[in-house]
Amino acid sequence: MRKINDLVDNPEVLNDFYHVKQEAKARLAAYIKETTGIDVSTDAIFDVQVKRLHAYKRQLLNVLNIIKQ
């Protein structure tokens, strides 16, 4: 962490970080468009939570999906 802290004010590192972040946001926006048909701006703030679902929760979600259809 100390080594990373030394790079906080380095404009080249910050620029590289920004570009990597924008590329990831573009991939996520493309995935959202492909799976839902919704266009999202890569200028928006993305807040994503990924959590592993236990088997019983997946089963419940499958049952609810069947009921919904």
From TrEMBL:
GO terms for molecular function: glycogen phosphorylase activity; pyridoxal phosphate binding. One of its GO terms (cellular component) is cytoplasm. Keywords: Carbohydrate metabolism, Glycosyltransferase, Pyridoxal phosphate, Transferase. Its EC number is 2.4.1.1. The keyword Transferase applies. GO terms for biological process: glycogen catabolic process. It comes from the Bacteria. InterPro entries: Glyco_trans_35. It catalyses: [(1->4)-alpha-D-glucosyl](n) + phosphate = [(1->4)-alpha-D-glucosyl](n-1) + alpha-D-glucose 1-phosphate. Its cofactor is pyridoxal 5'-phosphate. Allosteric enzyme that catalyzes the rate-limiting step in glycogen catabolism, the phosphorolytic cleavage of glycogen to produce glucose-1-phosphate, and plays a central role in maintaining cellular and organismal glucose homeostasis. Belongs to the glycogen phosphorylase family. This is Alpha-1,4 glucan phosphorylase. It comes from Streptococcus equinus ATCC 9812.
